[in-house]
Design a protein that fits this description.
The protein is of the alpha+beta class and 475 residues long. The protein has three domains: 5-38, no CATH class; 46-370, Beta-lactamase; 388-472, Lipocalin (Beta Barrel), CATH 2.40.128. Helix content is 29%, strand content 22%. The protein is built from twelve helices and 21 strands. It has helices at 5-19, 23-38, 46-64, 107-120, 146-150, 175-180, 199-213, 217-229, 278-287, 296-302, 359-370, 388-393; strands spanning 68-74, 77-84, 86-88, 93-94, 101-102, 235-236, 250-253, 256-259, 274-276, 315-316, 325-331, 334-341, 346-352, 396-399, 405-411, 414-419, 427-431, 436-439, 444-450, 456-463, 468-472. The strands form five sheets. The chain has an eight-stranded antiparallel beta sheet. Strands 2-1-13-12-11-10 form a six-stranded antiparallel beta sheet, with helices on both faces. Strands 5-9-6 form a three-stranded antiparallel beta sheet. A hairpin with a 5-residue loop joins strand 14 (396-399) and strand 15 (405-411). Helix 1 packs antiparallel against helix 2 and helix 4 (107-120) runs parallel beside helix 7 (199-213).
Length: 475
């Protein structure tokens, strides 16, 4: 059998990236995937790419009422930089490339960079026990290192998944109060053995940055990252400060935009407290190709895989056969993604002030346009009628693997879904067939499956990237 040498190199690189544990191995995996990508470059001009993206975003506006900013750059130079929708719907103020958005978990790469700057300055080591920097540290946390927090391998449960979290989100909290909500919770696994995304871990990283540096988290980032890079439209979220060009955030209520729920910034700290613009985030992206912030050795360590496809504050996994370093963000009223295709020196930054956009679809389709891969223009969900008796059979509670419970109800003839926690409000499920539904702003289908007796026994969730999650019925 004659093998495609480029495909073989990519497969080798992908497997190494998935299994990599050392900096040397990560470097080899990156070299192989970069070589494979370089042998299959896109032949499209910047103008052709921009025209296709504009067509796609116009379709997204028509289908999903997209609102936000999109920047695509090559070698640090924008080839597409455009905004859509309104920064403030009530006042009719349009979004522009200078509009400031909350970036949610895109904050985490900044948090990780701050930690590594402190390591390079001798203020801490990622191999240190977190208890070296935390007061009243429980015995169960003694084996947990800063690296475990960076890579989501600590086993500390994610406080955003706790039942009732949303009911207290508007209240200001001290570090001690927030840590107290998860300090005595049992670990979900032995530290270092598994990956489980944990905002609790990144909250602790913010506290560690403050203890090690002697500066508040926001001030450390301003003095050491934002100011040196000229990021003049980036900062720590503050409910009271006047921030020029700040976008209002919107959630979905009764299938219409509504002002997002208020929450206090102290609830987030280093997990997702920052705001920025697409243009400022490009400055951060470009700095990571240099040693302006940390040395190349430190950068290599940050982008080395841990237990899963995650390094220090970054997801590291190829897309379309090209190495990709990325992070997304999703919070009340805002969503976004920062994608760094390092072999191609191509950056895609998408920020939205509607917290119900199909961000996974956009994060797949925009790169597909850039690299000449297959994609489909967005379209409105076609209505399919399901009778009231069948809808009633779908009601109940369904358990996700991360302890979140999905509650399905029928209200005014509509099938509704509510998560037991996180930041997504109750939303309507729209039928594509008698058993399969979609929800606005969720890049997945929800299929109700029955057991041999005909009773609805589970929801099978399939996202746009092919991942399948089974949520068994629990009542």
């Amino acid at each position: 059998m004659i093998l495609n040498p480029i495909k073989s190199l990519f497969d080798i690189g992908r497997n190494l990236c998935t299994a990599g544990r050392s900096i040397a191995l990560a470097a080899l995996c990156l070299l192989l995937v970069q070589f494979a990508a370089a042998q299959n470059p896109t032949s499209q001009s910047a103008q052709q790419i921009a025209a296709k993206i504009d067509e796609y975003m116009a379709a997204s506006m028509a289908a999903d009422d997209f609102s936000g900013s999109l920047l695509v750059a090559r070698d640090g130079q924008p080839i597409f930089n455009k905004s859509y929708g309104f920064a403030n719907i009530e006042l009719g103020v349009p979004n522009t490339p200078q509009t400031v958005f909350r970036i949610a978990s895109i904050t985490k790469p900044f948090t990780a960079t701050a930690i590594m700057m402190l390591q390079e300055r001798g203020k801490l080591k990622v191999g240190d026990s977190i208890c070296k920097y935390l007061a009243d540290c429980p015995d169960a946390w003694q084996p947990i290192t800063i690296k475990n927090l960076l890579t989501h391998t600590s086993g500390i449960p994610n406080y955003l998944n706790f039942p009732g979290y949303l009911s207290n989100i508007a209240l200001p909290v001290t570090h001690e109060q927030m840590i107290g909500t998860f300090r005595n919770k049992p670990l979900e696994f032995v530290p270092g053995e598994k990956f489980a995304y944990s905002n609790s871990g990144y909250y602790l990283l913010g506290v560690i940055i403050e203890r090690a540096s002697g500066r508040p988290y926001a001030e450390f980032l301003q003095e050491n990252i934002f100011a040196p890079l000229g990021m003049k439209r980036t900062g720590d979220f503050d409910n009271r400060s006047i921030i020029k060009n700040r976008a209002a955030g919107y959630s979905l209520m009764n299938d219409r935009p509504a002002n997002a729920i208020y929450f206090d910034r102290s609830q987030l700290l280093a997990t997702g407290s920052l705001w920025s613009t697409t243009e400022d985030l490009l400055l951060f992206d470009q700095a990571l190709y240099t040693e302006k912030l940390v040395s190349r050795k430190i950068l290599d360590e940050m982008f080395t895989l841990s237990v899963a496809d995650y390094g220090y504050g970054w997801q590291v996994a190829p897309m379309f056969g090209r190495p990709l370093i990325a992070h997304g963000g999703d919070t009340l009223g805002f969503m976004g993604v920062l994608q760094r295709f390092t072999a191609d020196r191509t950056t895609i930054i998408l920020l939205s002030n509607k917290g119900y956009m199909n961000i996974l679809t956009l994060a797949r389709d925009i790169p597909a346009i850039v690299f000449g891969e297959k994609y489909e223009l967005p379209r409105k969900i076609k209505a399919f009628h399901v009778d009231a008796k069948t809808l009633q059979q779908y009601t109940g509670k369904f358990q996700l693997p991360n302890s979140v419970v999905l509650t399905v109800t029928v209200e005014d003839g509509k099938l509704m879904m509510q998560n037991s926690s996180n930041t997504r409000p109750k939303g309507e499920l729209f039928a594509e067939s008698e058993t399969t539904f979609r929800r606005t702003g969720v890049d997945a289908t929800f299929t109700f499956e029955r057991d041999t007796s005909g009773r609805v026994a589970a929801i099978v969730i399939r996202n746009v990237n092919g991942a399948i999650t089974n949520a068994p019925r629990i009542n």
